[in-house]
Amino acid sequence: MKAKQFKKVLALVLALVMCLGVLTACGGGGGTGSTPPANDQQQPSGGGNDAPPPSVEPVDPSTLSGFNEAPFIASMGITTPVEDRLPVKDDILVETVMANGQPLSIGTYGGELKRSASTSVWTCGKPIEEGLFLFNSNAEVVPNVAKSWEISSDSTTYTIHLREGLKWSDGEPFTAEDCVWFYNTICLNNLDTKGVRNCHKDANGDPAVVEKVDDYTFTVKFGTPKYDFLETCEVDLKWHWSPKHVLENVANLMVEGKNDEALAEGKNITGMQFADVTALGKAIFYNFWCYPNIPTVNSFVISTESGKNDINGDYYEFIRNPYYWKVDAAGNQLPYIDKIIYTTVQNVSQDLMLLLDGTVDFMTVAMESIPTILESQTKININEWSGVDWGSAPHQLHINLNIADPQKHELYNNIDFRHGLSICVNRDEFAALASDGWQEGGQSAPQPGTQGYSEEWAKKWTEYDVAEAQRLFESAGLVKGADGFYTFADGSKFEFNIIAMADQGAAETYKILEPYFRAAGIKCTFRDYDRSYVDNEILSGGLEAILYPVTPIGDISIALKPNSMVPGAANNVAWYTTMTYDTASPELKQLMDLKSDLDKTADPDKRAEIAAKMLKLHEDNMWTLNYVAAAPVYHAVNARIQNFPDGLVWSDIYRDMGIAHAWCWYIQE
Amino acid sequence: MLKYIGKRLLMFIPTILIISILIFFIIQLPPGDYVTSYVAARAAEGETFTAEQIAELREHYGLDKPWYVQYVEWVGGIITKGDFGYSFEYGRDVWDVIMDRLGLTLGISLVIMIFQYGVSLPIGIYCANHQYSAGDYFWSFIGFIGTATPNFLLAVIVMYVIYLNTGTIYLGLFSTEMLQNGMRPEYIPEFLKRCLIPILVIGTSGTCGIIRTVRAQMLDEQTRQYTLTARAKGCSEKTITYKYCLRSALNPVVSGLAGALSSIFSGSTVSAIVMNLAIQGPVLLAALKSQDMYLAGTIVMIQAILVVIGTLLSDIALAWLDPRIRFSERG
């Protein structure tokens, strides 16, 4: 009953959003800088927003008559006029639209954005992260810190142009030297523990050569053609800099192996004690935004005040960067909000309570929490985004196709077995039970609005048919034993052993799933384990099957981030675990071959074609299974927060909340 | 007496060593290690690691060595340098992490303990003196409820009721303003309000045990011959109750102090998580979950040491309190 009422409310809200969208709709969005190269995406778009974005003319910064700054700047002791803190006029980035193409409202200055936080560096990092480039919501690279770029005809040299006059948050000039030094000193010497990223490696795995041309230009040269540097740089690296004027000394000490002196210097800069140089390097060169006194070009910078500057503490805050280089269409220097404040909670479930009483301004919430939120005394808006997981992540079933046991290896790689497992479950009943009626049956397939979606795939193998499932099991080589359960052809016992991470709800899912498998003649076992055990099982390839895998399958683009979709691309994916080319089935070899073709292909159309073929292979083979369609990603946002975009896609490639461009948000009480 | 204490202190060293080995061994028991959980947690947020990077991390943290080598290095560091190791999760020295929360933990735990004894001793005495009266039933009922209801549930109920009535959720001891601006006189009323919830919630759990013990002991003592003699000689009821009976009745309560020392150090865990108290308990739980073993090991070891010290202290206190124990020791 409650679910029905909620669905009605949701339908009304969606209808209202659509009407508003239609009222303001027409034309396409704008952007600055040079035209980005065409890429191989099938233009994924946001989930809940089908209305074309209204036309917003890009604003030429040179036409702006003047610039304004936040009153808070004066309290920071900054006396330099705003014009002198911004880049040269032509190179200022003017924000006019949200990532979904909707126009931005001109905001008002001031206020604090309140968040609760675990001690995660990424929770506070992603929303304010600046990359050399950024993705728009069509997964196209757009200018950001780099204002433009050129690619040589053979795709071996990328020339990147930076914004002239852009400054670090301490007011020092940000130049090509910072970008070149970062690569040559930090990456090549692995001082940040991440070393040379894939985006900087050519087809032979050799590192690129990064050179300074002038103060605002640098080049990245590869030994072999590199077709996707811009995209992979945004995926693998994001930033391409480090403040040389602050960190040069400590980096040199680390390179020279003077560890004690490097640690002392690190403490001198940040005021924090690091246990060793590895921890120091990762902190100041990789998770730099979390450490005080390390300048950034982000919109907000962590406080330098003791008691407010430790992300492991109970309270910390990020303060506006007075040298931020983006303005709105009226010439107001961004961000609008003065501070992002974080109050640490011991348990993530407390976030919801804090959201309800207005102590926290926004968070991602589960569908079931929405009625509670709508009833709260604080006015909270629900924004619907799409996810990228194939079907509902908690209901994904990954079977290890690289299992060591030869009999099981053969069985699990047999498409009929997987087909049987898929259709022996009554999806509607299962989904209703497993999600308390919130979600519908589905399959492990891309969500509507994301790359590769087709209705056919979303419905593939979803017809409930036990007799057919049994026929398929037999065709896969199983034989029904006297007790009604299938055995291997040689009569040896077959048990389908599923595991899961404890406390994720998979045990309940299994209780609903198991009777279907049992009825079809598949004997299952289930155990849930502590996360570290599950991770070990995946890393060692010992796992057999998992419900709610640690890394669910699905992402914005199989080309940009193949981790969950192509064997060998990551080490924490349950369906292929430790698989290599040699241990892969012929179909999976095809998938891996296509991936290497993709790495060697320049032509955007051909790349799109290859990506489509890779997805088709997934559709044909259904290497992973799912029984429930994905739920949208819901963000509960306090109504006082303005310019929060609706209908985007929640993805790490888009830096999760990063694509919501928090520097454009403002507060209206 | 001194010999007795000396002997106990000597026993201290092997006990602690054995405990530390056990702790280290048990913390190592679950599969995986800190690197596994670290990589998994970061991977969930999109950070990627190559197999080489994972191996490097493991080598860097010394997790590639057998557990006994890690143990010897850890204990060696403690004995020779007073270095309790390094918390992987916090990226800082274990001792600093513990010290960060020690003040608040001790403060809260002590206040809660004072509350428990302050409330339950008078109630226990009252119940014994008014056996089977309405008051006796009432307080026993309240005490039982306090013990029977899990603290975390009570905490949630109390917080929910307050939220319904005020629209504010009192989560944690400090409001955002307090954390932002530091403690100011005008914040004290709100701070006290915030303190009241954990004190009531955690405090009530221990009261019942003490009430029942004191009540039973007092009833027992009241029928003893020395009490009857005192009463026959015309001693006032007040003197009988407080000077004679209560003194004997306190023995089991004082023995209970042995464990109290350790719980004062760590504070409660589950309730602290529910009420968002930044004390030691949640740190320990998180450290155990992420296999941040030097941090977890140090906290558990300090707890164990405190139990040993607590036992010693309570024995000494008992000897001081009860002449019979002193005399039997001499004999």
What does the largest sheet of chain A look like?
Answer: 5 strands, mixed
Strand order in the sheet with the most strands of chain A: 19-18-20-15-21
Q: How many helices of chain A?
A: 20
Largest interface, per-chain counts? Answer: A-B, 52 and 51 residues
Helix share, percent of chain B = over 70%
Estimate the global geometry of chain B from the Cα principal axes: globular
Q: Looking at the chains present, what oligomeric state does this protein adopt? A: heterodimer
Output mean pLDDT of chain A. Answer: 88
Largest β-sheet summary of chain B? 2 strands, antiparallel
In DSSP terms (H or I, runs of 4 or more residues), the helix count of chain B works out at 17
Q: How many strand units of chain A? A: 24
The general outline of chain A is globular
Beta-strand content estimate of chain A: 15-25%
How much helix is in the residues of chain A?
Answer: 25-40%
Distance between the termini of chain B: 11 Å
Q: What radius of gyration of chain A results from the CA coordinates?
A: 26 Å
